[in-house]
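$ ./design --mode recover --in tokens.txt
reading tokens...
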């Protein structure tokens, strides 16, 4: 376990807070569509910041810790790109205007960061108290990988979640957007705007994203500090990345398949880590091997997607729906309106 002094924790959290505050200010004080050039510059800057943080981990914990951080960041960044698929679907479903999309995106990113921080604390405490937690996390990731593989050609129904349905029961829904507000007064009664429903949809899927990402990165490292840093730096810059690749996301035809392989690999690795504590017959999987396998899998998925789209320009990617209830008929689900 990497020992991290309190001041490094404080400095890292302060850096993340400063960066996320800058993003929030850009999205709320002056909401606007990020141009392609600006999105490319900002996305590159956040990637460089994340990679530069490797030097901090290297200085504090050595090459092993640095390798774990890079591997965890790659896993979390790839999962974050998949999350952008769902964000695009939500924006389209609730017809969020381009001007308001940065505001909704930042609500989702900030919510994801808070949720993941809480899940990291719970997960770290559970692992320290019960080594069998590795098996629970691993089994959950394998279950998710199987579900993602089975439903890789489907998209989640973003209206079919409890928060959105509860909002529809508690508040009447206003027709169309009324400025930037989440609610509006109509005839003396509060009505929810589609912007509120879109925000709730993103916050609700944040929970599912955290359920996947936290066990996945704990499969790479036991250090809560590395888990937090990998998650935080993977989430930062998603607003710019959204506008950079939103038009290209549906071309990553095999991304969900690649992620299913990665999640299955990490899940099995977690289970083997627990078995290795009981017997020396099971070898530990080096972090370099994990990083090489994950990078190779994502590269193959990307190249296969390019090949598929060139052969079939009509091919479209799907985010996958690993938690779809089997047997649920299309006409029983709420359809986007």
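writing sequence...
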């Amino acid at each position: 376990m990497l020992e991290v002094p309190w001041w490094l924790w404080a400095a890292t959290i302060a850096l993340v807070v400063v960066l996320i505050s800058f993003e929030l200010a850009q999205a709320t004080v002056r909401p606007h569509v990020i141009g392609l050039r600006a999105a490319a510059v900002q996305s590159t800057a956040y990637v460089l910041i994340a990679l530069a943080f490797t030097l901090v981990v290297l200085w504090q914990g050595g090459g092993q810790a640095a390798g774990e951080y890079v591997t965890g960041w790659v896993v979390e960044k790839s999962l974050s790109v998949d999350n952008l698929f769902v964000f695009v679907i939500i924006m389209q479903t609730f017809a969020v205007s381009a001007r308001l999309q940065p505001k909704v995106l930042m609500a989702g990113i900030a919510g994801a960061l808070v949720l993941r921080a809480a899940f990291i604390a719970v997960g770290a405490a559970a692992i320290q108290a019960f080594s069998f937690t590795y098996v629970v996390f691993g089994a959950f990731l394998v279950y998710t990988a199987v579900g993602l593989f089975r439903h890789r050609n489907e998209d989640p129904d973003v209206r079919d979640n409890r928060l959105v349905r509860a909002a529809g029961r508690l508040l009447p829904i206003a027709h169309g957007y009324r400025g930037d507000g989440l609610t509006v007064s109509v005839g003396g009664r509060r009505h929810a705007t589609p912007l509120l429903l879109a925000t709730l949809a993103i916050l609700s899927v944040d929970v599912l994203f955290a359920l996947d990402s936290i066990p996945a990165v704990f499969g790479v490292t036991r250090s809560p500090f590395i888990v937090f840093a990998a998650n935080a730096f993977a989430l930062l810059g998603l607003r710019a990345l959204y506008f950079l690749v939103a038009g290209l996301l549906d071309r990553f035809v095999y991304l969900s398949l690649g992620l299913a392989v990665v999640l299955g690999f990490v899940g099995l690795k977690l289970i083997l880590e627990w078995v290795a504590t009981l017997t020396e017959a099971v070898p530990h999987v080096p972090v370099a091997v994990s990083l090489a396998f994950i990078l190779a899998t994502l590269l193959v998925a990307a190249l296969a997607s390019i090949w598929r789209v060139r052969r079939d320009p009509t091919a479209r990617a799907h985010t996958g729906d690993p938690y779809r209830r089997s047997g649920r008929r299309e006409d029983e689900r709420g359809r986007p309106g």
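exit 0
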